[in-house]
Amino acid sequence: MLKVPVHQVAGHPASEGQLGPLVDESGCFYKPLQNNERGNTEVAFYMSFSSNPRVPKHIQRFFPKFYGTRLVEASDGSGLHPHLVLEDVISNYVKPSIMDVKIGSRTWYAEASEDYIQKCFEKDKKSSSVSLGFRISGLQVYRSPESGYWKPEKKQIQKFGADDVSLVLRRFVSSYQPTESDRDPDCAFASSIYGGSSGILAQLRELKSWFEDQTILQFYSCSILMFYDKESLLNGGDPRGAVKLVDFAHVVESKGSIDHNFLGGLCSLIKFISEALATVNECTIEACSTD
Amino acid sequence: MLKVPVHQVAGHPASEGQLGPLVDESGCFYKPLQNNERGNTEVAFYMSFSSNPRVPKHIQRFFPKFYGTRLVEASDGSGLHPHLVLEDVISNYVKPSIMDVKIGSRTWYAEASEDYIQKCFEKDKKSSSVSLGFRISGLQVYRSPESGYWKPEKKQIQKFGADDVSLVLRRFVSSYQPTESDRDPDCAFASSIYGGSSGILAQLRELKSWFEDQTILQFYSCSILMFYDKESLLNGGDPRGAVKLVDFAHVVESKGSIDHNFLGGLCSLIKFISEALATVNECTIEACSTD
């Protein structure tokens, strides 16, 4: 039985009567293939990437597992439609906080059509892509059983500047204080989620090292999904803070250089997250020295 | 006595009867101030940067020393004109090989005029800026007393793609073999110039570390000048391989992020140079194992 995913934060949702992704109970994610070059590009990416010996194992884990393509009943009721069958990376998360960050100051590539370039160019300038090297495309932050998720609207997210991004990255790892202003989040979970040898920051840095070296592909308009399970964290369990790359409809072969566009944006995101973490460390040091 | 510099590889030369830079015999470089915002931007940059306590000493050394501004006789005969007085970074080099590399996949910033953005946008797409994250703006490679310098024309340089850039970076550190094809340079000096703990690659990596962290400025349309003295190298002396940043007419204050545009391009350049160096190391290893 396929159903509409509960925790989708970006992209077209299936719930509005249109073609969108589906999930099953065995942990698979069914992404409808677009009937154009983008669909072809994404299938080609998954087919070649998952078996590419030049991509090391510790890097493969940042990509959803690929189980092939399958014809399944489309979410819009239009009948059978080809879908990519992928790993549903958040299937085991009970109350996931998720952020989708589209990486790169430009989302277009030189070989695309003039129209497409112009469309992307305007979007990149209006959003934080040009200024920060990335833009948040969607997010949900679990607050509490009573308050559920904080999930700002797309229009609000699109207007995010540097200060908003900084705030949201801190709010993403904060405990929920309904009586206090959300302008000063406590970053209570920053060390557990962003920090540590297997935290999100360490994972992003591992990815960065690979991007400093790989000249295989250029990942235009690709997103980094960051997520963790707050319920598990609050119960003293492993929050499983994770990083996955998603959306490969605009991946192109490299023409002999690294993907400087992706790398620059990734470094910028790393810097923002480092600063969120540093705020906490400073507070801890101050607290210690006051004691 | 001011004269036209002999070793200028990029920008408008004074020699064509137009306003251009001058040098004196005490090691100063006089750069005419443009009569517009660019001139103001560059003066403001040098004034604040050279005394900015947030910029560490080991980073200041990558920038030409700044000695103020002075009215001097313009090179185009138009009378007194304000000039920046800077350190002439190659004044002590006898036979300098020089490469001017404009860093960043885009040379425009969002606050610039639509016309300016469009002009830069087209230039960036036509050159290697968009594809590689940088473009070579000028170069001269010293060959031998008989053959002098190899100094390709601007039009030829503008067409450089990934393969040309790779070739030129190897040719830059090769001995001159007049009888052989230049398509297969020997990289005889790659280890001395690019390699080692104080070589060009180490210097670029030091600069990279700073760019991963600094959120003070964004260096649009700025160049990295790489140079060394081949005469000195051939005589067994120190070739003084060096890296300097130049051209700050489009530097803007950061809006809270790192300069991901510059950093991405710098990482791309580092990768190209690493590959040039790796070729040599492989050859050396092969030679050793054959012996």
TrEMBL record, chains A, B:
<keyword id="KW-0067">ATP-binding</keyword>
<protein>
    <recommendedName>
        <fullName>Inositol polyphosphate multikinase</fullName>
        <ecNumber>2.7.1.140</ecNumber>
        <ecNumber>2.7.1.151</ecNumber>
    </recommendedName>
</protein>
<comment type="similarity">
    <text>Belongs to the inositol phosphokinase (IPK) family.</text>
</comment>
<keyword id="KW-0418">Kinase</keyword>
<dbReference type="InterPro" id="IPR038286">
    <property type="entry name" value="IPK_sf"/>
</dbReference>
<dbReference type="InterPro" id="IPR005522">
    <property type="entry name" value="IPK"/>
</dbReference>
<dbReference type="GO" id="GO:0051765">
    <property type="term" value="F:inositol tetrakisphosphate kinase activity"/>
</dbReference>
<dbReference type="GO" id="GO:0005737">
    <property type="term" value="C:cytoplasm"/>
</dbReference>
<comment type="function">
    <text>Inositol phosphate kinase with a broad substrate specificity.</text>
</comment>
<dbReference type="GO" id="GO:0005524">
    <property type="term" value="F:ATP binding"/>
</dbReference>
<keyword id="KW-0547">Nucleotide-binding</keyword>
<keyword id="KW-0808">Transferase</keyword>
<dbReference type="GO" id="GO:0008440">
    <property type="term" value="F:inositol-1,4,5-trisphosphate 3-kinase activity"/>
</dbReference>
<dbReference type="GO" id="GO:0005634">
    <property type="term" value="C:nucleus"/>
</dbReference>
<dbReference type="GO" id="GO:0032958">
    <property type="term" value="P:inositol phosphate biosynthetic process"/>
</dbReference>
<dbReference type="Pfam" id="PF03770">
    <property type="entry name" value="IPK"/>
</dbReference>
